[in-house]
């Protein structure tokens, strides 16, 4: 995306929250921060999505305070006729509507509607700022023999999702672009795969694995075997393989071959109670706080290694980043090492990781080209964030080269975060070191409701 598109994303207004400037004061507290990781968006969104397609009632634990992206998926499913309930910490059960899944919620109960139980929505489906919700809901709706309009916030409208729409039209579904080609809002009218149509797809996996995940997670409605071939070198491999694992553990028999998948018709059979793990990628901000503010962190919720979806790399390189990670305790070390990090399978950490390298001994990040297709072009927005705080990095074809031993400098100018919650969260931590005015107030709620509260209460 061009810098013009970054400016457009930066000026967007999310329909669910006011995005405006925030004055962050410098603070010098060294008191330990209790850092409880939020639920994994990747797991939570997939679990809600699969449970809604089952014919059973599924109770999901560990989903409270999961943020606006998970809420976007929940709201879309409710509009499609899925009934949900919430159980509070006192054991009381209530219908679940558009409200966020907050602190007081013990679990959410999804009453699945099966393959054919989804209803035509009375209004358009709003995916908000959630790219995962967009991809999954779009493929789900391509199964239906009724018309659905899908839209999102201004940032989402600016994202090119051509590979998603190509895969849908190639399945025989009619996709109409209501404004710009290959961008939201769109009108979808299925169903997919008529009797005479070849049951195979070619999906471009070089920019995002989410269209592939969407087909995998919607595949319980298939009536015949589907073969999906990969075009390009796949990225975020741990995420699409998570989709395969979740389906296969709930009744599917999806076969992964060298450059394609084979999916036979299957029925969803989920356990009645499920737990959503915490989001390992979010530890990058706890580590950045340790690195930038020299504040010790007491970490809770670090998931099992196989549930980290590639972000276990943060634990593996923590010492090189100058962080001592001893069980649940994170502290700053006096020594660090320059390293090269390949983030092909963990693209969400590029901004905080880049800053940690700059604050330590520097290094290089590779495998990051697909980060240019996120809420912002995260290569460009990361570089601009560096420059806002008087720091330097050089963009490479697929990553960033970062000099070490840098420190953020005070700035009088407004720090732009381009409608990207991970850029905003990184900027907030830098601002806690030197003070700054940053825009995007509220963006953290997309993924981590308690982010600012957790840090600011120590000031």
Short description:
With 459 residues, the chain is of the alpha+beta class. It is built from 14 helices and 23 strands.
Please describe what this structure looks like.
This protein has 459 residues and is an alpha+beta fold. It is built from 14 helices and 23 strands. The protein has helices at residues 3-10, 41-53, 68-79, 131-141, 154-157, 162-169, 210-217, 237-248, 283-293, 313-316, 350-359, 378-388, 421-434, 451-456, and strands at residues 22-24, 33-36, 57-61, 83-88, 93-95, 105-111, 125-126, 147-151, 174-177, 186-189, 200-204, 226-231, 255-256, 260-263, 273-275, 297-300, 323-326, 329-332, 339-342, 363-366, 394-395, 400-402, 436-438. The strands form 6 sheets. It has a 5-stranded mixed beta sheet with strand order 5-4-6-3-15, with helices on one face. Strands 2-16-18-17 form a 4-stranded mixed beta sheet, with helices on one face. Strands 7-8-10-9 form a 4-stranded mixed beta sheet. Helix 3 (68-79) packs parallel to helix 4 (131-141) and helix 4 (131-141) crosses helix 7. The longest helix has 14 residues, at 421-434. The chain starts with a helix and ends with a helix.
